[in-house]
Input
Amino acid sequence: MNYVTFFSEATPLDLITYLRSDILVKGGDYTTETVVGREVVEAYGRQVCLMPYLPGVSTTGILHSITTPQA
Output
């Protein structure tokens, strides 16, 4: 199963630690070294995946289109 999850903390570190996902995915505008939670995920033998950056496409934009009522 795949999920997108909201969190209220400044970073998702606590959530990443709790969920123990197989793959942590971030956009290509990040580097592996700047991904919050990378050390946690790699410590239990899983991987961080950076997806290619697509101008004008963002998780925030996708979620906004899903959650904004249509007229």
Observations:
- Residues 59-67 form the longest helix (9 residues).
- The first strand starts at residue 23 and ends at 27.
- Strands lie at 23-27, 47-51.
- The helical segments are 13-19, 38-43, 59-67.
